[in-house]
Amino acid sequence: MNSSLRLRNFLFLSFIILNAGLAATAAAACASQKLETAVLAITRVGSSAVEITVEIARTDDEKARGLMYRKKLPDGEGMIFVYDRDQRMSFWMKNTVIPLSIAFIASDGGIVEIRDMRPLDLSSVQSSRSVRYALETPQGWFDRAGVKAGDVVSGLPPHDGAARLPKTAR
After folding, report:
1. Over its length of 170 residues, how does the chain's per-residue pLDDT go in tens digits?
2. Given Cys at both, which of 21, 104, 116, 138 links 131, Cβ 3.0 to 4.6 Å?
């Protein structure tokens, strides 16, 4: 092999390794960024309330990133996606390795439906009707906590962007 071909191969491989390293660093940075948090209470029909600590995804960037690149999500924690109007929602699991459950929530806090999502699955999981919020948790948490469609979530973050909940963590 002549020296110019070896040099070209070396430069090409160096470029690939450098880009892989940068991508891994960016993914790690995304995974470590925590958003504003709040504690929501879910009143179960015919039972007491259960609490969940959530990160709040308000901006388009926060909602697009969601729980991507996270390696773990403890029971009793999740992410609430806040929208400014009722709409049919669609979620996928791109770059998300944690199995999740999602609750689609109406503007009055009522849970419309709960669905499970598979890690890295690019197919859409859609709400059956227009809702205002979506709450992602570790898969099966809703069942383990006794939460079902028809239960009501209180303490939901405002969706108008004007008012903010007190910050419990950053």
Report:
1. 566 666 566 555 555 554 544 444 444 444 456 799 999 999 999 889 999 999 999 999 999 999 999 999 999 999 999 999 999 999 999 999 999 999 999 999 999 999 999 999 999 999 999 999 999 999 999 999 999 999 999 999 987 554 444 444 43
2. 104
Domain ranges in the chain are 1-32, 35-154
Identify the three-state secondary structure at position 154.
strand
Cβ proximity of 160 and 84 under 8 Å: yes
DSSP 47: S
Task: Quote the pTM value.
Answer: 0.77
The DSSP string of 78-107 is: EEEEEEEEEE--EE--TT--S-EEEEEE-T
Q: What would be the CATH architecture of the domain defined by 35-154?
A: Sandwich (2.60)
β-pair type (131-138, 125-126): unpaired
Question: How many other CB atoms sit within 10 Å of the CB of residue 83?
Answer: 17
Q: Which residue has the tokens 């690019």?
A: 122
Distance CA 67, CA 38 (A): 16
